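Worked example 3. Consider a protein that binds nicotinamide-adenine-dinucleotide.
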Amino acid sequence: MKKPLRIGLIGYGFMGRAHSNAFAQVNHFFDLEHQCVLQAVCARDGNKVKGFADRWKYNSVETDWRKMIARDDIDLIDIATPNNLHAEMAIAAAKAGKMILCEKPLGLNGREAEKMLAAVTKAKVPNMVWYNYRRCPAVTLAKQLIDEGRLGRIFHYRAKFLQDWTINPELPQGGAALWRLDIKAAGSGVTGDLLAHCIDTALWLNGGIKEVTAMTETFIKERKHNLTGKVEKVGIDDASAFLARFNNGSLATFESTRYARGHKALYTFEINGENASIAWDLHDLHRLQYFDHSDKGAVRGWRNIHVSDNGDHPYVGNWWVPGLQLGYEHSFVHQVADFVKGLETGKPAGPTFRDGLATDYVTDAVLSSARSGRWTKVKQVK
Ligand SMILES: NC(=O)c1ccc[n+]([C@@H]2O[C@H](COP(=O)([O-])OP(=O)(O)OC[C@H]3O[C@@H](n4cnc5c(N)ncnc54)[C@H](O)[C@@H]3O)[C@@H](O)[C@H]2O)c1
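Given these inputs, the predicted complex is written out as structure tokens:
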């Protein structure tokens, strides 16, 4: 008999669906002592949330997240709401003794994230941040290759996350679906939204970042606000680029924008080491490009590894037969599997709130450097 892990999800948008799918799938593919139970889903509109619960087979609904957190038939609170709600919800959930999975970025800024980390530490509750790209099998393989020392000394880290969906100046800001353009709900623009993903992956693969120098731009200065109906100043960064020095001495460039016409979600990174290089591309997420300088003679060149071709590839043994691709949604299933395994082994899987705070410290430094025009030291998590 498996132990039930009763989940209470807050927010049923894009991520609410991705998480629900992961909770529903994980026990079909991973051997776990726990059984995920879709116990309750919460959002403000009673009719809509009922429709979502029926479709995804949640046992119950709530329209007030505080009531859901207070329920004693829920073990884990999953936060999939806009960024400005993460801290309040996570701190309340920790005080109620619930495990927490929280969407990224952890807080609106490092100050908020510090309070969130303090709350889960005090309550001793298991916690994780949904930086799911770590668990695309090709990215996990990149981590394995680096940890095996195959790259040797790392010289360069290069990351980009490019989109094009806010180029239209008539697009309003604020409210459902457009909260990302509203500084109060989002905290920042592409820095906290997209670069946060690149930074989390980078810290995981290449260690801490020491200092940054950044530039940001807001191309469309005013937009109509959906909640007030008035044309208001845009407070978010539309584009953000920074140089960084890692603690290991390597140099980095990071770039993100929602103004790269033609790109929808082009997250790429490349790492150059003394002995080898690796590169990854979200649009081709099941492949890892790998160049090994120790390869001999005329066949030395970039290898294009299809990261589901053999049972040794990360997570592949849990799914189909070799050669079939794993996609975006699988990264969320893997994250739930690793979180639950962490509960069972007593070895918590990352990224925890501590890791989420480290990323928020980097985004704080990026925004601060963009304002000052100076190199800025990144606060390190104690
Ligand atoms: N891990 C990833 O790759 C990834 C991708 C997209 C979004 N995100 C993060 O996930 C979070 C949600 O983003 P999204 O794209 O799913 O947004 P969304 O707008 O699609 O969904 C947000 C949901 O929150 C609900 N909500 C808002 N206020 C609420 C309240 N007071 N009480 C209860 N529910 C409330 C909305 O009804 C909606 O269902 C954000 O923090 C975002 O940064 C992460």
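Take a moment to read the result before moving on. DSSP finds ten helices and 17 strands in the chain. The mean pLDDT is 98.
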